Amino acid sequence: DYPICRPSLDLDFTQEVLDPRITFSRGSIGTRVNRNRLIETISANQPRFDYDPVTGECKGLLIEESRSNSLLYSADTSNAAWGGKSTVIIGSTITAPDGTNTAYKVIENTSNVIHNTNQSVGTISGTYTVSCFVKAGERYRGYIQIFGAGGNVRAAFNLKTGTITGGSGTNTITPYPNGWYRVTSTGTFTSATAACYLVIYNDNGVGTYTGDGSSGLYFWGAQVEAGAFPTSYIPTTASTVTRTADLASITGTNFSSWYNQTEGTFFFDGSLAFSSNVGGVPFGVSNGFNFPNSIYYSKATTSLAITFSVVNSNVSQSSVSGGGNMTSSNFKIASSVAPRNIYTSLYGGIIKHSISSASIPTADRLTLGRAPWNSGATNVIIGCIRRFVYYPKALSPSELQYLTT
């Protein structure tokens, strides 16, 4: 069942190389996890090849929509932008997740209070996510929070067990090297002023207690962003920072040299945000950024289903779920298109969709990680592309199953 047809395009992004036929842009800096498992800042218009912070495995080309960090001095809790200094002391620094000596220790004072440092994020409305890198000191429990009259999301954590112990909203905890964890919490707010809180618990998981004046936690890389899922860290200092979207495409002869206008097979291996609230278009081809003539995968914002669609002259030739829902953030999907025969396989399953009059649209460009019907950042995924392959022939169902199992 191994495809005997050789691909005419094979993009393997785990090699940390961007094919010269790809046009790539991002109008701002961005961060990634590098091969040393450290947070690294990448210059504008340079691709980010992201690595797993636990295994060190390359996850591929990182593609993200535009996001802004609403907090100031995200890595410097000693700055006056962070309040709560009547309940905590800012101590010495240690090595942060980016390898620099910039992670401050937040120490409980000797009062019987909630020991926290906090910062206003202004008036917010809609879905927001708070995240922060946290490392145990003498204390190993605490929580991060966005709180205001319009809502409350909070993730309580235990760094000895590496678990979320309570809170509200949708919460995650991810291990990073050297004892660091990234904790996140997502929820919905009505229009009201809110603030971000970084709070220390005592060993019993109690927030209000008499501190000893020396015990604390390390906080670094705090972030508040509008969105239903955390994205890569956006460092800030005296002002908020917006990371613009990653845009990758192939056009002109760089496209026509490998694309077959009459039949073909698409294979995508990558990861998306594993959430029924987060959508995106992993790839697409179209004629002149034109939806009426396009082929694309899409992840809806209301479910975990992946859909493969073929549209020709504004008439749907196929729009079917790719064999089921995502079962994790990682997935492989392959689809073959030919007149009257369209097959799709996700996780080794097969769906056949045939229309007697089905026809394949003409295309002149490929977009990676976003919708093909707009030159801008439309339906951008939040995830990584490990590999994208195109065969200039419609592969058989068994071959599609082999690719996606």
Mass-distribution shape: elongated
Number of strands: 30
What class, by secondary structure content?
Answer: mainly beta
- Report the sheet-strand fraction: over 45%
Walk me through what this model shows.
With 405 residues, the protein is mainly beta. Helices cover 3% and strands 50% of the residues. The chain contains two helices and 30 strands. The chain has helices at residues 253-256, 397-404, and strands spanning 9-12, 23-25, 30-33, 39-42, 49-51, 58-63, 67-69, 88-94, 103-108, 112-114, 116-136, 141-148, 151-158, 163-168, 170-175, 180-200, 208-210, 216-226, 241-243, 247-251, 264-272, 283-286, 294-299, 305-312, 315-325, 330-338, 341-346, 351-353, 365-368, 383-391. The strands form six sheets. Strands 8, 9, 11, 12, 13, 14, 15, 16 and 18 form a nine-stranded antiparallel β-sheet that branches. A hairpin with an 8-residue loop joins β8 (88-94) and β9 (103-108). The radius of gyration is 23 Å and the shape is elongated. It starts with 8 loop residues before the first strand and ends with a helix. The mean pLDDT is 95.
